[in-house]
Amino acid sequence: MAPSVEVISPTPVPSIEAKLDQKSASSGFIREPLKYSGSLDEYKSFDVTPVIGREFSDLQLTDILNDEAKIRDLAITVSRRGVVFFRNQSLNSDEQKILGQKLGELTGKPATSKLHRHAVNNSGRNITVNEHGKLDDEISVISSEVNRKLYGNRFFSDAQNLASEGWHADITFERVPSDYAILKITHSPEDQTGGDTLWASGYEVYDRLSPPIQKLADTLTAVHHQPSFNKIAQEHGIELIDGDRGAPENTGFDFKASHPLVRTNPVTGWKSLFGAAGQVDNGWIEGVSKYESEILKKYFRQLIAENHDLQVRFKWETNDLAIWDNRSVFHSATNDYDGKRQGNRVVSLGEIPYHDPVSKSRREALAAEV
Ligand SMILES: O=C(O)CCC(=O)C(=O)O
Ligand SMILES: [Fe+2]
């Protein structure tokens, strides 16, 4: 008998086992959570909130760039705290790229995963990464001026949309999405204030689901979709990057990928809600009715946007830098300024997302650690 409700059929995706096999075959990827060795304890730092965020008060990243133990510990710290902040960094864009690649390499990402080359936010837009006119496809220049040109008035302070629409994780429409992202703000807003960025913990969102809803979420997948790139490319005569966007799997112009709704972070071993907010606004949750998909998407977005106790907000000064783990946090820019603001972002690619059924939630794992 035909189902009485319209069910969104799952797109064919490899089974969890196939994904794990594929990953372990291609990467020797690490199943056991990684242990922090203590090598960063000599630097002054503090937790910005109980749940998310750590700030290092005076560490210069250039001083530790060649120290593999420290970079590995840094990656573990980012994965555990979700986002880590550094003030007034001297790191240039080439060093930022080295750091982006090392964070994942030293924590076991597949050898084929490099730095992302963004289909739109690349050198083709002709915004230079420094004052010497350097263009680089592995750096996305985050520019208020270009955003206003391409995406219109939601990037002005008098926009009338809901600011909470901005919550997302980066480039999850790719089959191999990001592990870490590093944003260095090179020009803080000319207005003197505004332009803060917020991050929200996907681990904590998962922990706020009741056990029966966690069980349901554990079994689901979601399609992540970004339809606006093709539209923007057409409207503004931009040539999209089609070929290898940092991993051999990341090609084509569909900008669509199916990923587990709840993703295990291989560095911490913790489960995080992943198929939520901006990256699934134009996508859907698979295997449930269209109506159920909309209700679940709305509920997950609400948990992210309306729980300020799982968020952290950062106020930028020029040359401040943030590193976050795109597998386990969402973030949102604040478009409350009208002057110029600009930064360089490196997005590195990690593993094909997977859900390890024996992995723990953050709260469970932390309780077991003490
Ligand atoms: O401009 C910001 O504050 C953040 C922009 C963003 O979403 C990103 O860099 O990934
Ligand atoms: Fe982003």
UniProtKB/TrEMBL annotation:
Work out whether the entry's keyword set contains Oxidoreductase: yes
Its keywords, alphabetically, are: Dioxygenase, Iron, Metal-binding, Oxidoreductase
For this protein's source organism, the top of the classification is: Eukaryota, Fungi, Dikarya, Ascomycota, Pezizomycotina
State the organism of origin: Aspergillus cavernicola
For this protein, the record's InterPro entries field holds: AtsK-like, TauD-like_sf, TauD/TfdA-like
Q: Which residues form the TauD/TfdA-like domain?
A: 46-345
What does the similarity note say?
A: Belongs to the TfdA dioxygenase family.
Q: What is this protein called?
A: TauD/TfdA-like domain-containing protein
Named cofactor requirement(s): Fe(2+)
Instruction: Classify the source by domain of life.
Output: Eukaryota
